[in-house]
Amino acid sequence: MGRFITITVIFKGNIVGSMITRRLADFVSSLSYSDIPGDAIEMARMCLLDFIGVALRGSSEMSGLMALGAMGKGSGEATIIGHGRGDAERAALLNGIFAHNLDLDDGHRGAQMHPGSCVIPAALAAAEATGATFSDFITAMVAGYEVAIFMGLISNPGHRELGFHTTGTCGTFGAAAASSRIICPDVDAVVNSLGIAGTQAAGLLESDHAGTMSKHLHAGRAAQSGLISARLASQGFTGAESVIDGDEGFLRAMCRLDDSNMNETPEIGAFHIRDVYLKRYPVCRHLHSTLDAAAEIIRENNFRASEIEEVIVSTYRIAAEHDSYSPATVEAVRQSLPASLAMLLEGGELRVEDLEGGFSQEIASRIRIEVDPALDELRNMRPSRVKVRLRNGDVLKAYRELPRGEPEEPYTWDDIVEKFRELNPGYETERLDVIGEADQEPVSDVMLELFGR
Q: Which of 73, 101, 102, 164 has an alpha carbon within 20 to 30 A of 22's alpha carbon?
């Protein structure tokens, strides 16, 4: 069995009592497929299924096509989803962008990040470049998710409060871990890979809040940087072992360390991939509890949007801050609670194509958003209460403590196949069975089954 390590780090003043990088590397280096619990393997397969469906649709979105046009495919045998094959590093970059540009990729609410769109493109490119088996790839995925989520958990909330996008920053560590598990699994090489990754970790939330495509780049660059880190480390290129908790390392430079941080860090070897959520709405996750509550009201009552007098949304602070009533781009709409909720109330659904069609300013203007202090105390659950007041005086209410798709209320394999089908009409979804069945087959053969040559 692999060596599963519990790390306790106490923050006090300028003292950090651990060397986190090597302990993470120990886990990555020692992990084998047989160490991974069955439910974690099944979740990894489902995350891959979800990733493939989202990235395939994202490969034809504007930002994906722009990135492809700018970067080209290069020469190689790495899968560039929706566009054939090319160079491994470009594949990691492009597939990360494709998977992140619809805001439909998996996530982890505690770590406040999207691990899959960073980890899977890197692991896939590394696996195809080396002829790795599917089980090797799954092992690398699990290792990458573990490291990415660990870094998100140890860094937040202060990391996010300083304006960093955890997907781009902590995702780089996860991508390096996944790539290293395949390319250079020796523990010292993994240490170097994580050290190299840490000095490349980047991503600012302003890109997100401004409604720009540069947010999509965060996942792509994290994946590419992680792959580059492992490739460099495999040649003996060195990185700082103290990159995470050193005097001028990641935690001091990019996180808030104070008395509130004096607690135990997450466990390594907990298989955090089991706590990942999957999404059905192509908008920011902080909007989903509100949308789920509104969808419940719509299902249980017969009314038209034109009959609405007022909608009151009571929720936690971060969700309430997504309050733009005039988003100027599709990317900004994905961050707007009034716009997203207006589309759902008017159409009964919220799909990728709905965002492209615009929203009713009139309906949005009837939506009032307020911070409920009691719900803000429960912000780690991401709760929301929706009250719809109709012109005839009826008041319709619904409450969601957390959005659907979380580990407490997970989607099924069939749910994600249906999501795949909705995103990619015409794709023969029977081909997806290979994701649930593959084991010792080369990853390149699995990709051939999914996409052809």
A: 164
